[in-house]
Amino acid sequence: MVKLFKPLRGLPQGKLMETRALLEIIRPHNCLLAGLVGVLGALVAYEGVPPIDRLLIVFLVVFLGCAGGNTVNDYFDYEIDMINRPNRPLPRGALSRRLALYYSLLLYALGLSFAYFLGFKAFIFAFSAYTLTFIYAWKLKPLPFVGNVAVALLTGATPIYGALGVGRIGLAGYLAICAFLVNVAREIMKDIEDVEGDKRLGARTLPIVSSPKKAAEIASLFGFLTVLASLLPIRAGIGLGYLPMILVDGMILKASIDMLKEPRPEVAGRAQRALKLATFIAVVSFLFGAITKGVGI
Description:
Layout: H1 2-5, H2 19-24, H3 28-46, H4 52-76, H5 78-84, H6 97-115, H7 120-140, H8 146-165, H9 172-193, H10 195-200, H11 206-209, H12 212-229, H13 232-235, H14 245-261, H15 265-291
Helix pairs in contact: 3-4, 3-8, 3-9, 3-15, 4-6, 4-7, 4-8, 6-7, 7-8, 8-9, 9-12, 9-15, 12-14, 14-15
């Protein structure tokens, strides 16, 4: 624990805190998407509209957990972001590292306080997920492939948490599988994108310990598996509103094939951003598919 807090020394001086950096550091668009996936998990599992107050709490727990995780991730990634992402709040001096750490703990605490109202199981699930986000940022992220899988597990757990919030699982299990697979692919692509900065800091990501080509092959494999997994909800009776997944699958296939052809950082950057957009469209597709359940594709 002492080692954990040692980096609090040597904080950037000479710049006033930018208030907007408190919003920027949590990456609200990512948190919003995560919260919606949690709500979607609840809707898909419930096969109808559960109590609105429970949906709101699910959203807040997931949003705040994601916000806390993103913030503490930037705290631990300060040195590497100085190279790879110098415009983020901490490298550019908009926030102190100390404030970022305390801010992340506050976000975690707020999220857990809301999780309490969903029951003991939901609270323990949220606490476990929050703990994993912290451990990932602290220790797991530099580990080749292990860190990628940890992030993907957290993403896959999000719809399951929403389902847990309404007391059912149902179709949310399929959403969790797709979310897990596509995020393994995206995390590996992000490592390929950041390979030069990671090398300079001695990180041991998958493209460094193997090669960008082999990492791209693994990322593409998980992309292809995502497309296959996206067919499972059709067999389970998801509705006509799921049709936009055709576009999602096309985007995932293109990104995966591009990586196989050119496993370069700039290609990986475009591919991982394409998967991020595809994930957002997939959330909408699952939502409308759940609403239209009974109207066959």
